[in-house]
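== Fold encoding ==
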Amino acid sequence: MLGSVTTAKAEVIDFFEVAPENWLPFGGALAKQFRALTERYSFACHGLSLSLGSPDPLDLDFIKAVKAFLQQHQIKLYSEHLSYCSAGGHLYDLMPIPFTLAAARYTAERIRQVQDILGRQLVVENVSYYAAPGQEMSELEFTLEVLQQADCALLLDVNNVYVNSINHGYNAGDFIAALPSKRIVYGHIAGHYQQDESLLIDTHGAAVCKAVWQLLAHAYQCHGVFPTLLERDFHLPPMQVLEAELWQIKACQQRVMA
């Protein structure tokens, strides 16, 4: 997401993030090359297929494989989406978990199971969503319930909060302020696509907009400065453009700390 290590300025990049699913299948030369990177740089893992809210059973073999991968590469943070991506088969998308108390407790129980197997705290990410089937509580209430019941950590995706606030009509600043500071271990920031005045699509394919930068500063002011990853999945600009956004994250952090 951040571009090539060899062309980026080392002082602007503090850590990288990879999906373990993209590396678990490979051995041989590719595995050695990746190990050489994890020995040199700090990495976090951000999963794609744990499917925390799924009606399907947890994939225990997969969780054990992830545990071994994290240990092999000495990766301290493993995060996953507060969503699901399977139901009788892989859905190839991040589906919204119903905002109900029963679903929150069900998901929290599964997170606890994952944590027991991993022997570490799981980090869950607030996700963007475009429908809220069977909603009985707010996104914020649901998120807080899961965090408390599971005793897990939070990956605060600031862009997702902003996208959801526009699409579902709530105050993004209030949402962020209400989150528990002690659970936030790192953050994401990204760009999105504006389909309409009241419809934003989370794409990770554009520059971070001014409103999201302002919301990131607000998050730092509420909860203190936390490590923050710039996500960019496609429409990749020249490396110097990505570096400028990374420096903007650092400048925002320094302003708040000052």
About this structure: The chain has one domain: 10-257. Residues 239-257 form the longest helix (19 residues).
